[in-house]
Amino acid sequence: MTTAPDSAPFVAAVTATYRRAEELRRCLRSLVQAGPELGAVVVVDNGGSGVDTLGEEFPDLPIHPLYPAQNLGFGGGLALAMRMALANYGEGITHFLILDDDVELPPGCLSALLAGVGMAQARAGCPMVVGSDGQVGWFPGLNAPGPWQAIRRATIPADYLDRYGEKPISFSWSTFVCLLVAAEAVRAVGLPREDYWVRGEDLEYSLRLTNRFPSAFLPGITVRHLVPARGSQTGLPDDDRLKSLAMLQNSAYTSAWLPHGRRLLRHLPGNIYRFLQLPGGGLADALAVLHALWNGFIKARPAGAAGADLFRRTAAEEKTTPPGGAELSAEATGSRR
User: Fold this and answer.
1) Cα–Cα distance, 166 to 314 (Å, whole number)
2) Is the pLDDT of residue 233 over 50?
3) Is residue 128 located within the same domain as residue 244?
4) How many separate helices (H) and strands (E) can be counted in the chain?
5) Which domain CATH number covers 19?
6) 275-320 pLDDT, tens per residue?
7) Which domain does 268 fall in, by range?
């Protein structure tokens, strides 16, 4: 086991990627200057993303790439990454920084997040998130009514900051765009669920965390979420539609069957409405929504529990082959809503 210093914060950044090599490289470039507290970076390559030279490309980052034998999805990939970090660094890890592979952090972001959660005495913290246009596109579920309405209506960060400033606000759920979590909280609540194969794993996990530990939205810290064009990840025209259906199924399951997920139920009608507003919708979409809700509410299963309910079989069933050609098993390697 690799030892980590216990006199200062030691953060393990974790992410999973699927055929987004350029986005991942941009994310890693930003991590180089994120803060001296970064002690490890674990990247799970779910789909032959061509990132086998990361160690050579980023010699200043302590990168640990993993190549599972199959696409584990984002939840499964993160669980594998966090498990590997705990196995290698053990009690030395003080925090995990969970990241989407297409996020870009400003210099000093990690240090600022650590300072923010420390001042708020929180065990989970997330920043303000904007898109490539500088507009607010992703936000957590804030517990204070005034700030919650303000962040929902904000176009740019100043719309929120002018009213409520940089004061930390607790939240119930958050995305995985950028989420800092204390290792003690991870050890208490466990790892992200691996049967949430795509979408919704972040909501379930953040609800699980905030059900037991204090949280802090830190609006004075801004990161960029630079999402690729729709359908560009797999090349399938219905890729986003299938992901959205998985989101509805996972949300239905979380809110109906998990005690800490009941807070999500009030957001489900809005998610259904937004899905039905996607271009090209119609009766088939309505039937697909009913099917997703049936699986979540009645059959009591998340969307990854049975081959991702068509998504994995149609969009991403490829094996992952690491450098040298040999497949590694997981056991061996140890939006605006």
Assistant:
1) 44
2) no
3) no
4) 12, 9
5) 3.90.550.10
6) 888 776 667 788 889 989 999 999 998 987 655 565 555 544 444 4
7) 239-315
Domain boundary among 160, 193, 225: 225
Q: Determine the pLDDT at residue 336.
A: 35
Pairing, β 124-130 against β 136-138? antiparallel
Q: Are both 97 and 244 inside the same structural domain?
A: no
Secondary structure class of 228 (helix, strand, coil): coil
Tell me, yes or no, whether 278 and 203 share the same domain: no
Give how many domains the chain has, as a whole number: 2
Strand 136-138 relative to strand 178-182, pairing: unpaired
- Of residues 106 and 197, the one with the higher pLDDT is 106
Alpha helix locations (H) across 32-105? 54-57, 73-89
Burial class (CB in 10 A: 0-12, 13-18, 19+), 323: exposed
Q: Do 160 and 287 fall into the same domain? A: no
Handedness of CA 317, 234, 204, 80 (dihedral sign): positive
Q: How far apart are CA 246 and CA 310, in angstroms?
A: 10
Bridge-based pairing state of the strands 11-17 and 38-45: parallel
SS3 per residue for 66-82: ECECECCHHHHHHHHHH
Q: Tell me the pLDDT tens digit for each residue of 1-45.
A: 555 555 699 999 999 998 888 999 999 999 999 999 999 999 999
- pLDDT tens digit string along 75-102? 999 999 999 999 999 999 999 999 999 9
For the chain, the distance separating the N- and C-terminal CA atoms, rounded to the nearest angstrom, is: 40
47 and 193: one domain?
yes
